[in-house]
User: Fold this.
Amino acid sequence: MEADMQNDLPLENEHQPQLERRLATILMADVAGYSRMMGKDEERTVQMLRGHRQIVDALLASHRGRIFNTAGDAILAEFPSAVEAVRCATDIQSALRSRNEHFPEEERMWFRIGINLGDVIVQGTDLLGDGVNVAARIQTIAEPGGVCISGSVYDQIQNKLTLQFKLLGERSFKNIAQPIRTFSIAEANGTAMPVTVSTPKAAKRGNKVAVIGAVLCAFVLMTGLASWLYRDHQARHAEEIRQAIEVERQAAETQRLAVEAKNARTEMERIEKERAAAQEAQRIEREARLAAESQAAREALARAEIEKKRLDLALNRSERATGKTASEPIPQTPAATAAASAQNGTTAGRFDGSYEGRLCNEPSSRQPEKKCWPVRLQVQQGEISATWVVARLGKTGRVRGMISAEGEVAITLDGWQQEGKPTSAGLKGRWESDAISVSGKWRGGREITGEWQREN
Assistant:
């Protein structure tokens, strides 16, 4: 930048906060003759500057430089190292010289670069102070395409870079209090050098031919590269599609196997449940059959016992009536027994009558309370009979039994469980003083008792 750089700050006072300062290497780059080029062809100059800036910005980033200010064609950047700043400056000039060779001489654009190591003031992302101002002043004495550095930079990089430096002596600059020792980079291995702008016409024609050839070569290379990139892209795209299809196929196969496994488990669970249900049904049926057979056997046994007592009673009556021995024939039917008793005046009729009383289920572990219900017995010729109604179930229970001549009582009950299943019980006891008292157990094991008193 050919105009003066203004970085003056207001004086500090006791009411202002303390300013942040640090040591930094500042690089200032400015286009030589920029105003003249803009006056000649603004659009072409801006296009050239954009192309140059792309190269400059990339090289600044690669050398860890940070742009903290720009103004038109000028660039201000800071570096953490003086060595990196000088390397970046020489690389920039070398790269721009190569780019300029592809353009006519009147369109070529050259940068002047100045570098200084000094103390700066930090203001947000911007840097201010003499450290910046010295870099701006030094770049004004650099040749177009060249680099100038301050003595502070030179002291840091000498013997560290393979560059040749030319001492320019101490220079005084506007608004800089002390003279500045300055150096120019006179020559470097592959680095930027100050350029001259006069070339013969033959050289110009040779350059144009070289440019055309380079462009054609570049075009061929770019075409080949583009073709290769396109084929490579297509191949990668096809591979990605194939992999996506394979992933989808594997996912579908995994889902199918999972569904089949789930269905198999469900089917096995169903079969197991059906088998368990069938076994349970068979067990219940078997228990019910055994219970029914046991009940039938107990009932048959009770009937046999009652029949035996009836026969014994009939035998006793017959013996008393006829005075015959037990070896003589015995009546086999109740009608014959009743007729014989009536004829001969036997004592069986002494038990006849109606008896008021009740049956009681005694307390048990499952049913701790005693439960009783009324039952009215009818005794005729020693045979006991009665019924009662189970209101909750709407069913009828029955009592059958016999009283022997000696007053022994045997009773069979046909009743109902709470679940509505049939059950039975056998009770034994005695008749005494117009009262009957018996006890026994239901088929399930619960004790039951009965007490009755003959009505007058």
Summary: Helices lie at 34-40, 42-62, 82-100, 130-139, 151-157, 201-322, 334-344. Confidence is low (pLDDT under 50) at residues 1-10, 188-206, 324-345. The domain at 347-454 is CATH 2.40.128.120 (Lipocalin).
